Amino acid sequence: MSLVTEHQEQYSSWEEYRGRGIVQGTPEPQQDDDDDDNGITPPTLINSDWSLQGGMWTIHEYELEDFQPRIGASHWKGYVKCVKNWLHRWLTDNHCPFMHAYLYSRAGLPPCLQDAYATLTAYMGKTEKNEEVVMQLVEYKANSLLRQYRSLETFPVIDSCGIPTSLAALDTYGHLARVQALFIYQFIRLFDGDIRQRAQAEKLSIVLQEWRTQLWESAKVNEYLQDRIDDPDPPTKSSDDRTHRPVTQLWRDWILAESVRRIWMVANYTHTVYLIMRDGQAVCPGSIIYTLRCSLWEAVSAAEWFDLSKNKDPLFIRSDPPKTLLVKASPVEVDEFALSIVNIMWDSYSIDSWFTKAPGTNLQALLHI
Fold first, then answer.
1. What b/e string do you get for 63-86 counting C-beta neighbours within 10 Å, with b at 16 or more?
2. pTM strictly above 0.90
3. What is the mean pLDDT of residues 295-301?
């Protein structure tokens, strides 16, 4: 299956695609009252919301069994260590490779994630003396989350695979927050070593699967993304409204969409890794296109994000199969999240070949494992 979307195929390179999309100069300012851009009017883009195209939400099949026999146990353990480190960084730094620092900056951290944050803090500080109480807290908060959201009204939809399902009456931010919160509880309970908690978490795996499916569908129909994904030419909008969009809005849309993609991946792949470590095999849930270019996720302003994405290919691609990324970038150009996915999707031979482009470093060093 081709890794290049229909939208991109008409351009021979990122530079050509980029040249079509960027407007030189800045039109009249379009800023929200709560934006803090230090008085600087950001540039705007034409047709360059590259991360919000319809084809970008396709889930591609990935034959894990082609590579699994050549991926050692150290890869799976390294991935689990990565995720644990990321959760710790979320507590200390307010962000990590799948929790963006500015995702909830406008409305504040949702209550379900406030509970998850407090519970994770207690868990990271647990000792032999308080371990039982801490794990009781984890179980209680996980069950409270389920009770809170299972009572929500749902409505029928058809998912990306054409399968009838239901969608909770939440916006995309609401779906995203509950998936993030449940994933945190699931990760703690699956990998802590507590037999009871692991058994309980295994029973809830189907719930996380349902919620992340609903999140994925919501991201395609929610009011934040609808006119940019499914209806690129809405009759109620003028051409200027459609094509001249402030970078601040583009950045916010990208943060939301990329957060959806990353939690979809980390939730799916963590469960897959758990099954492989437990049973020796698992079915891969598929792969998706996401942003691999380093520094874009860490950008602290719309202007910085825009500058980074306009000057270099954002590497908005799949990280499998290896041949695409091997050609497009060296390891030091790829961000930490993508490197962790490479670690569990590529065999050692492909990884070693790729790192010939980055002498003096290796995957373990870049992942801090």
1. ebeebbeebeeebbebbbebbebb
2. no
3. 96
